[in-house]
Each structure stands twice: as C-alpha cells, then as structure tokens.
# Entry
Amino acid sequence: MQNSVLVAIAAWLFPGAGHALKGSWTKAIVVGGVVWTMFAVAIVSGGAYYPGLEWEEGQLLYLLNVFARLGNVFGAMISWTLSMNPPPNVAEWATFEYGGRLLEVAGLVNYLAVFDALGFTGGDEE
# Structure
C-alpha cells in the first residue's frame, strides 16, 4: 500500500490497521495486540469512568488527556460511550485511576505506531 494518508488514517483509527495495509502482518498483530490489550485492561480496571480533570480545573491537562485518548480513535469512542453510564461504586475500585492512565498510554503508544507505519521511525520492514 503506497498511499501514506490512507495508511496513517487507518493506523490512527484502528491500531494495527496501518501496518496491515502495508502488508507488515507481524507488526500489525503486535501493535494491535499491545494497544488493544492495554485498552481492555484499562476498561476492566474502570478507566473509562475515571474523569481526570474537567476543563475548568486545568485546560492544558484536560487537552492532554483528550489528545492522549484520541490516539486510539475507535477505543476513545468506546470509552467515552461507556463513561456515560458509570457503575455507582466505580470510584471505590482500587484500579480506577490506573485504568484512566492506561487508556491515555494506549493512545500514545498508537501515535508511535502511526509514525512507524508511515516509516518515520527508521525501523526495518518485514
């Protein structure tokens, strides 16, 4: 696949898809597996319900949270949909805050995967 715009958009929307479009199946499986595993652990930990900061409390930190979560667009849509109806005792979970941070890290790792799919990292191709 030579269309770098399509590869970048696919990789950003769905982790591993950019590498799959390029035919790098091993990287696609590893990237997709890592990002989606982090995402799943974050959701099970209650990360989708962790509010982080509100806009009024700190605009920069709020924007960084949104930017990080949008690294995995499909995952961000799932987590924001889940956050609309939180369980009543979710704030009591010991993993509540860790899950929120793990969602952010999963998105940031996917940004790196997008750059790798575009060939900006200098790694060897399969």
Remarks:
- The first helix runs from residue 4 to 13.
